[in-house]
Specification:
Elements (H helix, E strand, L loop, with lengths): L2 H22 L5 H9 L11
Length: 49
């Protein structure tokens, strides 16, 4: 598994968790999805060329 795939998998997991929390707990958890995608802080690799 490359770093690109690991980052995409982790971001997808955090987005799904955020959406599940927004559905079951409180709508403000949708912000977690936006935060996870925006603040990962990993430089783009070969998947983003």
């Amino acid at each position: 598994m490359t770093l690109d795939r690991a980052v995409l998998a982790f971001a997808g997991f955090v987005v799904l968790i955020g959406l599940a929390l927004a559905h079951f707990v409180h709508p403000y958890w949708v912000g977690l999805s936006a935060f996870a995608v925006k603040k990962l802080g990993v430089k783009p690799g070969t998947a983003f060329r």
